[in-house]
Design a protein that fits this description.
Elements lengths: L8 H15 L2 E2 H15 L11 H6 L3 E4 L9 E4 L1 H11 L9 H13 L5 H27 L6 H22 L1
Helix pairs in contact: 1-2, 1-4, 1-5, 6-7
């Protein structure tokens, strides 16, 4: 099922949590650190990315605690069947151009956890990501073409951005 709505920041954090749990069970504290480090390395710390508590995943039935109950006793968390469905739904969310911090985070999250989708759904998502990258390249090309009197450092920067995106697009298509 392809979602029409793009991921919002709190869903991006949920996607990280569910994705890591889909990779394998984690201790509550380890998962919290892993989420914070992963998102913090990709985008600057942001109040928008302060996700809901991992306890919410348990309450929502997306994760199950074993060897404990939650944060207080550093329970071991595992993904439930409902969590797998939620992960698939989040992985199929639309990306919203242009590639700002949240969209870039969502794109990288999709790429990181795409292996949890079946092959047909994976192909759809890769095609969607390629479409977003193509749009970003077109946007930057228009920006460059519309500002020929700009300083060379600016034009060089745009050229480098375009070349980088073209390289990423080529890798996606392989």
């Amino acid at each position: 099922m392809l979602r029409d709505q793009p991921l919002i920041p709190i869903e991006a954090v949920k996607l990280v949590a569910l994705g890591f749990l889909a990779d394998g069970p984690r201790r509550y504290g380890d998962l919290a650190v892993q989420i914070r480090q992963f998102t913090g390395r990709l985008v600057a710390p942001s109040l928008d990315l302060m996700g809901s508590s991992l306890e919410a995943l348990i309450v929502e039935g997306l994760a199950a605690a074993s060897e404990g109950k939650g944060m207080a006793d550093n329970a071991r968390l595992s993904l439930t069947a409902a969590g797998r469905r939620a992960l698939a739904d989040l992985l199929q969310a639309r990306l919203k151009p242009p590639l700002g911090d949240v969209t870039r985070l969502a794109l990288l999250l999709k790429l990181r956890f795409l292996h949890h989708l079946d092959p047909a759904e994976r192909e759809v998502q890769i095609a969607h990501i390629a479409e977003i990258v193509e749009g970003e390249i077109a946007r930057l090309n228009e920006l460059r073409a519309g500002d020929t009197a700009a300083p060379q450092a600016y034009l060089d920067w745009l050229e480098a951005e375009i070349a980088q995106l073209q390289g990423k697009l080529a890798r996606l298509r392989r």
